[in-house]
Structures are given as C-alpha cells and as structure tokens.
Amino acid sequence: MTTEKKILQVITEQKEYIKEFKTEKLVSRKEENLFEFDSSLAQVVIGVRRSGKSTICHKVLIEQNIEYAYVNFDDDRMADIRTEDLNTVLSCIYQVYGSDIKYLFIDEIQNVDGWYLFVNRLLRTNVRVFVTGSNAKLLSGELATHLTGRYNEIRLYPFSFSEYCDYHKIDTQSITTKADAERKRAFVEYVNDGGFPEIQSLRNKRVYIQSLIEAILTKDIQKRFKIRNVDTLRKITHHLINNICQEINYDEISKLLGVTDNTVRKYVDYLRQAFLIQSLTKYSYKSKERIRNAKAYIIDPGLQNNRDNAFASENIGWRLENVVYIELLRRCSNNFLDIYYYKANARSKEVDFVVCNQNKTVELIQVACDIDNVKTYNREVSSLINASTLLNCDKLSLIAFTNTRDVELDGKLIHIVSATEWLLGI
Fold first, then answer.
1. Is the dihedral of CA 383, 385, 391, 394 positive or negative?
2. Which residues in the chain come in under a pLDDT of 50?
3. 351, 342 in Cβ contact below 8 A?
4. To the nearest 10°, the Cα dihedral for 263, 266, 268, 270?
5. CA-to-CA distance for 299 and 274, rounded, in angstroms?
6. Are 419 and 369 in contact (CB under 8 A)?
7. Quick count: other Cβ atoms within 10 Å of Cβ 238?
8. How many CB atoms lie within 10 A of CB 219?
9. What integer pLDDT is reported at residue 369 of this predicted model?
C-alpha cells in the first residue's frame, strides 16, 4: 500500500508542474473543440502514449481559465496504488487543492484497478472530471460498462501533417512555387520523422522512438496483460511495423516465431489496444472475411525508420497510404464513419479505402505515389471505376504526388489530388 505521505508528496509536486505549464507556444489541435467544459460527463481522452493527451487537457483547461486539481498515475511512486488507496488519493487532493474543487484532471487512470468506481464517485458529487488513458479496450470497455452514457470520449493521435506544419512554421496557404516546394519538403520529413509532439525538437529521434516503443510494450502491454515472453511480442511488433499496409498473416507469423496462432492473435490485439497498431478490415458483409483479412498500419510514420535493425521497406507508396489512413481515422472517428478496404476476390483490383456511413458507401479513395507511369495510372483509376459501379458510389478520389485535377473516365468523375493538399485540407 502506498502511504499517504508519499501520495501527498507526489500530488504536491505535480501541482508545481502545473504552475510552470505554458500554453502560448503549443500547437492548437482540432480535438480541443470536442471538450465539453460545463457538461456533467467525464471528458475522456484516449490515444497512444506520448501523443499529447496530457498537454491538450492542460491547455484547454488553462485557456478556459479553469482552476483544476491534477493527479498523474503514470509516476513510479504511484505504481503500487490500489483500489483501496483511491480514498487516500482523494483526501490528499483535498489537502493540496482544497475541498471545494470543481474540476479534476486524472492522468493515465487505467493504471489503477477499479478506477471507474473512483470516477463515478466524483461525478456523483458534481466534480467535472477529465481523464486520459493509453489503452483503448480497457477504457472503452469499462467506460461502457460502468459509466454508461456518462462520458465524452475524445481520441487523440500524434500530430497530423497540418499540425506538423504549424509546429515548424511551414506556410500552408501561399500558392507560390517556393511555398509549394517547402510543403513537399516538410512532407518528406514528416513521413520519415513522424508526428509525436516531443520528437519535433529532438536531434536524436532514434533513442526517443526506441524508448517509446519499449514503454508501450512493457508498461502498456507486458505489465497489464502479464506477458512472460516479451521477446516474442517485440518480434511481432517490429514485423508488423516493417510490413505496413499488408494483410496480417497469423499462420505465417506463428510458424516463423514458433508460437501458436492464438498467441499471435492475442499479441496483435494487445498492440491494437495500446494504439501502436491500427487495423483495417475488408469491406464485406461476412464477418469472417473482415476478421481474417485485416491489414496492419502504424499509428505514426516515424516508427518505421527510427529503430535499431529497422529493415522497413522504402516503398514510399505504402508510407503515403499509411499516413492517409491515420488521417482518415482522425477525420472519420468523430463523424461516425467507418473505413474499410475493398477487394472483390483474390484476382480483382483493390481499392485502398472505402468510407461508409453505416451500410452506405460515401467515398472511394485510392492512394498511389507516382501516377505519371501510365501502367500505374491505368491500374489505379480502373480500380476506382470498377468499385464505383459495384458499391454504387460516385465520389472517387485518387491521392498522389501530383498536381490536383479532375478527370472523367467511363462517365465517372475522379478527383486527383496532391497528397500535401489533401492532408492540409487545401
């Protein structure tokens, strides 16, 4: 059991941290508009470790001139906190901030068993609660079960390309040749270095990424799920990172590593829950096909290069596809839209992304690096046209490193758009 003296010390020190927190130079993020400050619902921010969850909560609270209490459970001195200690934690919060607090920000709450009982108790006393966490299933599952209808979930990703440009002061509005070249240069750097906020000012990005992956594997997965063979987990992780945009072949991985198919499936699911891997299922009315043919993507492009023994493919097309998928997740998640990929059969041409509103297809998106090659161009546009007829969808987009233009083929209008313009929403 963690002593009251230790808890009091931690909360007091964390209060000092808030006093030094400055918001002036922070990048504004679209998710800031999703917070409901006067709501009785818990504001729950979830996402991969170090994506900026804590920062966005501090930022919005400070900018709203809200006085709030703060406790961060992602502190080694709080590692032994148990459910029975939470009353002591609350007592210490009252001692440090006063008993009339109206807002409480709780960081990485999922580290404590029974956390939802604590949050429910606070909500019943009309305290406005802000919560962050780095485990999708744990938070979403327990929120749905124990905070039924009493939370507002906000998903946060590492910087988008637009936020990356904002941080690095890249001109995203000018139409001059120089500005366009700067955006393209910035995009190449974004694809290589990624959008984790803290990495932007670091020279040694490899050390940061390696420590981040290790923290996710050990703190967010191994410790939580009591995994003994963490080396197998690491190998599966790096295998998926090296093979983005590809279908996950569970049988192949199990044979390669000498473990059961069930073990591979469990470990991949843990990686999804920790937001390191994002999966994309096949467009199909058959549940078996959606489960069996899922593809793997990574949460941030910087994870590919900045690792020891990284033999990730240099295929810029796949990297572009990965960036587009994560951007689609940002745009679609709050609009209740679903994303799939489409392939009618083993021999048919594939469409990278199918955006759906329930069972209605609203957009088909194809991603290609170089469509100046006639063969590549013909393959990509024919895939869109074929799927357009089969899925009854006329909104067709082709994202590539090219000039934006519209083309009409077989009575179908295809919007060809520059990758940088699409990502920036220009």
1. positive
2. none
3. yes
4. -140
5. 10
6. no
7. 18
8. 17
9. 86
Amino acid at 132: T
| pLDDT for res 313 | 55
Q: Can you count the helices (H) and strands (E) in the chain?
A: 17, 14
Task: List 364's β-bridge partners, or say none.
Answer: 354, 396
pLDDT at 290: 67
Strand order in the sheet with 128-133: 69-72, 103-107, 128-133, 42-46, 151-155
pLDDT at 47: 95
Question: Which tens digits make up the pLDDT trace of 56-91?
Answer: 999 999 999 999 999 999 998 998 898 889 999 999
Q: Which alpha helices (H) appear in 312-364, and where do they start and end?
A: 316-333
pLDDT at 2: 76
- What token pair was written down for 60? 């919005």
For every residue of 137-153, DSSP letters joined together read HHHHHHHHHHSTT-EEE
Q: Can you give the pLDDT at residue 138? A: 67
Give the whole-angstrom CA distance, residue 244 versus residue 354: 18
Q: Any idea which residue has 């979930």 for tokens?
A: 153
In the chain the first and final C-alpha atoms are separated, in Å, by: 55
